[in-house]
Amino acid sequence: MQTAPTPAAPAQPATNPGIIILQWLTYAFWGWTVLAMSFLTVSVLESFLANADTGSFTPYTIAAVLVLLPISIVCDTIYSKSEPLKKTGAASVVMIIHAVIFALFGIGSLIAAVFSLVTMFTSSSDMSSNEAALISAIIIFFLYGAVFLRTIRPPRFPKIARYFTLFMLCTVGIVSVLGLVGPVAKARATRTDKLIENNLTSVSTSINSYANSNHQLPTDLKSLDLSGDAKKLVTDNLVTYQANTRQPASSSVDNTYYSTGVNQRAASTYYYQLCVNYKKANKDKYSTQYPDTTSDGGYTDYLSAYYHGAGNTCYKMKTTTY
Fold first, then answer.
1. 84 Cβ partners below 8 Å, 6+ apart?
2. 76-131: per-residue pLDDT in tens?
3. For the chain, which end, N or C, has fewer CB atoms within 10 Å of the first or last residue's CB respectively?
4. pLDDT one-digit tens code per residue, 43-54
5. Distance CA 78, CA 18 (A)
6. Is 318 exposed, middle or buried (0-12, 13-18, 19+ CB in 10 A)?
C-alpha cells in the first residue's frame, strides 16, 4: 500500500537579522527623505508665495533630498525582493515603530494645516505666509501618508512599494526643480546684494574709526583696515565712497564727565557718502524710506543696509570726533 506524500510546510517569511536590518534601513531612509522633502517644500513655497528669502537654506535641503532619495530607492528595491506580505516577530515590531512615527508626523502636519486655515479666517494681516504654511502642511500630510502606507504595505496593494517609489521620484523632481528656479536662482541673482547688506555697515564703521584716529576722513576706501567680505566690497568695486560731501562742522561738548578740569572740549563732525547698486529691492512692508533720511539734512550716524530699494542707492553718513 503506497503511503501518501506528506504535504510540504508553508514557507515562513524570512526573519534573519540581515533582512530585519535592511527593513529598518528602508523605513528609516524613507523617513529621512520625507523629512528633508518637508523642509524643502516649506522653503520653496515660502519663497514663491510669501517672497521670503530662503535661497541660503534651500540648496542644503535639495542636496539632502538628492542624497537620501537614491539610498532609499536602493534599500527599498533590495528589501522588496525578500519582504513578506505578512510580517511577524521582529519584522512586525520594526514596521509598527516606523508606522507610528510616520502617522504622528502626518497628524502633526494636518494640525498645522488646520491651524493655518483658522489663522487665515481670523487674522487681518498679510495672508501670504499662512497660505504657504497651509499648502506646505497639506503636501507634507500626503507625503507622510504615502510613506505610512508603504510601511504597513496592505495585502490588498502588493505593488504599493513600486507605486510609492514612482510617487516620490515625481514629487522630489518637481519640488527640486521649483527650488532651483525659485529661491536658489533668486539667491544667485542677488548674492552681491547680500554681500552689501551684510558688510556695508562694517565699511562705515571702519571709516568712523579712521576719522576718530586721524581727525579726518580717509581719502579712499583702500586706506581702511578691512578684512573678509567687507574688504571684498572694496576690491570688487561694489561700493563708491565720497568724502566731505558737506563742510566739516565744529562744536563743543560738555567735558565734565571726563574730569579733566576743562569744562568744554572740541568736537568735529565729518560728512561722507557711500553708494551701492542693488539688483533687487528688499523692502520692509511697514516702511518706505530707504535709506533713512530723517536726520540732520539727510545725514545719519548709523548705517542700516538691510532694507533698500532696487538700483543705485546712496547713504549720507556723518561721524563725530573729539
1. 13, 14, 91
2. 999 999 998 889 999 999 999 999 999 999 999 999 999 999 999 988 777 899 99
3. N
4. 999 999 988 889
5. 11
6. buried
The total of other beta-carbon atoms located within 10 Å of residue 102's CB is: 24
Write the CB contacts of 140 (distance below 8 Å, at least 6 apart in sequence).
Answer: 34, 37, 38, 41, 42, 105, 106, 109, 112
**Segment holding 151, helix H or strand E:** helix 128-152
Calpha distance 281→287 (Å, rounded): 13
3-class DSSP state of 295: coil
Q: CB burial class (10 A; 0-12, 13-18, 19+) of residue 122?
A: exposed
3-state secondary structure of 241: strand
Q: Residue 294 has what pLDDT? A: 53
Cβ pair 132, 45 in contact under 8 A: yes
Give the DSSP per-residue string, 269-286: EEEEEEEEEESS-B--TT
pLDDT of residue 155: 84
Which of helix, strand or coil describes residue 265? strand
| pLDDT reading at 298 higher than 90 | no
Domain boundaries defined on the chain: 17-189, 191-321
Model pLDDT, residue 38: 97
What pTM did the predictor assign?
0.77
pLDDT at 9: 41
The mean of the pLDDT values for the chain is 87
In a 10 Å sphere around its CB, with 0-12 CB exposed, 13-18 middle and 19+ buried, how is residue 64 labelled?
middle
Q: What burial class does residue 55 get, using C-beta atoms within 10 Å of its C-beta: 0-12 exposed, 13-18 middle, 19+ buried?
A: buried
The identity of residue 171, as a single letter, is T
Give the number of residues written for the chain: 322
